[in-house]
């Protein structure tokens, strides 16, 4: 019995190894897979057969002459069967993305809202409707949605799916994962963390960076060697509450002088003199900047300076390779990137040869929902055996 | 040939595995080692034989009846053969420690100095004399010193052993590892990083904490799952240059309002009105505090407040499980710990259920030198095979 368990564990590990190598290389023959994994060709053929049966890989049709032996058919990750739902519940929008195992985005639904000081159940109900609609559409095209990831603007207990506190929603201790009830497993996570992972898997493609999420709140996600750094209790990355000036303006978190009060979306729009960005949108702000509007340019300088101050603290503490600015900082980058880099550089010049480069996010506000979906897909790649068991065991394939 | 290399690599890995398990459990029989490692008893016996030959483990003499089969002799890590040198070059002292593989401190040499704005070669010469004396004494007792670790107060290029910048010494780009020239491999590292590792291996024994090193400079070492977090370029943990007030007093690093200007040893002694701490020592300060001296108590409050502000930024960013205050903060802890915890707690209260606990270092200013030695011992445990080859190959056993 112990032997059988061991065999299953080894098979599970090898299935994951093979799937991972196929993804890394784009496509591979069974012979090449045997070479890169160190497994025998017989074992690889069996494992590839299982992955084909589960719909996780597909033969490309391309035939390549191997270095030894007869030509082989290549396999690649299949985007036709397994998919994941990426959800974001934020202060001013709800977003749903369906992403397949080949990391193609198959469906995008976004709804503009104002969730400030909202009733959690109302907002969760809105998101649920959007998510169920996406689920139905995805399953209608033959995709099997195996799980959902949900990005929320605040620290989360990942185990229980409970939001600990989301000051900008006015929520505390909301069990959002359980309340959403989509009929598929849901993993809830802080939006900045997921945006960082989105950037890792769908955007800049670097393996070491600090992603800065400029939304109503400001979060950060630290990616180290291709993995998210979560901290001891999962609360790492609260860049928005890093001190800019200890006796500065009162923050919604209860402290004073937090970065969010200088460079958060609300503070920024206040400085611009525009309190209705949800009507005008960031595009209007960008247009003002393009026309050289002095107040808007000054608001960028102020926000950029504060961001540079807080990032210099972050760089001193965690030494990220690169800074990636996302959220509203992505469209504002041409006007804000320079002052951020200058402020950082000025503070850091003597301690290190050079400050980390400041780059713009490739995904903007889509990053978190993509990261949420990507995280579900990672669990599939980490343990394809568990998924094929689930697909086989499940008697009721349709989501409730 | 490829097969032979594989066999050597497997043996090396298994030697490390066995040595690690022996250390973790304190002592184990060969039969128990076979159980915990999953290796066969024959393999374990061969590996234990090799470790005995290399002097890395020793039989305890204790005989324990196994669950199955005949009673076995237990082995434990041997402290009698292999040792490491831990060095610290700091602004106001030089320290040398000899630590054996069983993590016992065998020799302590400390020299009080004033290295501010010093000539690197003079200071390195002083440290070299101290280290050679320790080496000779250690080898005289039959220990083989297999390497040295050196802690320095500033960011380091670990690869080259070069100090990038040590503002409080007035040094830039000093290849201290090469200059020290002790006849054993030397690994140079930031003192706060090594103090954190010292605390991990010789002190509090936790696996997740942020160690704060209060010296002339203030550094921090983040330990995550029992490993040091170094950052992308190895410069993580520069807590002393986290912003307290962006336009505050000028710091030696070139920026303004860094934590060091509020809570570093010099700033603290300035606030106390005592510029000769090297004459009077921290003990005099502690005596003043015990007598309720108002200026000294006020200096503790100011330093503790600034430390609490900077730590709240650090906690928001990296979410450590526990804060461990070391260096001068260890003797000052009864007067500084409370205000640090209060300031942190006040800023963090609404974002998380509770702020991380603040604890006092178990090692004080000895932490970095112990961590430096401990890091060398870790390389032995990680690859005992490499060491036994080196011991065999080396024609000239005495250090130059």
Automatic annotation (TrEMBL), chains A, B:
InterPro entries associated with the record: ATPase_NBD, HTH_MarR-typ, ROK, WH-like_DNA-bd_sf, WH_DNA-bd_sf
GO MF term (any one): DNA-binding transcription factor activity
CDD domains tied to this protein: ASKHA_ATPase_ROK_BsXylR-like
Boundaries of every HTH marR-type domain copy: 17-60
Protein name: ROK family transcriptional regulator
Source lineage: Bacteria, Bacillati, Actinomycetota, Actinomycetes, Streptosporangiales
Gene3D superfamilies: 3.30.420.40, Winged helix-like DNA-binding domain superfamily/Winged helix DNA-binding domain
Species assigned in the record: Herbidospora galbida
Family the UniProt entry places it in: Belongs to the ROK (NagC/XylR) family.
Pfam families: MarR_2 (PF12802), ROK (PF00480)
């Amino acid at each position: 019995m112990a032997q059988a368990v061991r065999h299953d564990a080894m098979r599970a590990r090898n299935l994951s190894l093979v799937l991972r190598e196929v993804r890394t290389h784009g496509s591979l023959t069974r012979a090449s897979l045997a070479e890169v994994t160190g497994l025998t060709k017989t074992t690889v053929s069996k494992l590839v057969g299982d992955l084909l049966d589960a719909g996780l890989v597909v033969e490309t049709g391309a035939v390549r002459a191997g270095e030894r032996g007869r030509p082989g058919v290549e396999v690649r990750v299949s985007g036709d069967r397994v998919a994941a739902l990426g959800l974001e519940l934020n202060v001013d929008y709800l977003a749903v993305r369906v992403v397949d195992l080949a990391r193609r985005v198959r469906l995008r639904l976004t709804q503009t809202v104002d969730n400030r000081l909202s009733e959690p159940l109302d907002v969760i109900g809105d998101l649920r409707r959007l998510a169920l609609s996406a689920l139905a559409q995805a399953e209608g095209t033959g995709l099997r949605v195996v799980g959902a990831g949900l990005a929320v603007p605040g620290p989360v207990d990942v185990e229980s799916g409970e939001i600990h506190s989301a000051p900008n929603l006015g929520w505390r201790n909301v069990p959002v994962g359980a309340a959403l009830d989509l009929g598929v497993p849901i993993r809830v996570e802080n939006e900045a963390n997921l945006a960082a992972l989105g950037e890792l898997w769908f955007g800049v493609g670097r393996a070491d960076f600090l992603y800065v999420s400029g939304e109503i709140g400001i979060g950060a996600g630290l990616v180290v060697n291709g993995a998210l750094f979560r901290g001891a209790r999962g609360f790492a990355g609260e860049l928005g509450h890093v001190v800019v000036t200890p006796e500065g303006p009162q923050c919604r978190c209860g402290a004073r002088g937090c970065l969010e009060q200088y460079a958060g979306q609300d503070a920024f729009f206040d400085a611009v003199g525009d309190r209705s960005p949800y009507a005008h949108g960031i595009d209007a702000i960008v247009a003002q900047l393009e026309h050289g509007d002095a107040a808007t340019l000054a608001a960028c300088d102020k926000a950029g300076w504060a961001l540079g101050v807080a990032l210099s603290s972050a760089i001193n503490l965690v030494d990220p390779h690169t800074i990636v600015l996302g959220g509203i900082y992505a469209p504002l980058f041409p006007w804000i990137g320079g002052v951020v880099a200058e402020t950082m550089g000025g503070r850091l010049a003597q301690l290190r040869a050079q400050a980390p480069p400041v780059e713009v996010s490739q995904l903007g506000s889509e990053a978190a929902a993509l990261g949420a979906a990507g995280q579900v897909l990672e669990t599939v790649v980490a343990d394809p055996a568990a998924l094929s068991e689930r697909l086989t065991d499940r008697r009721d394939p349709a989501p409730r």
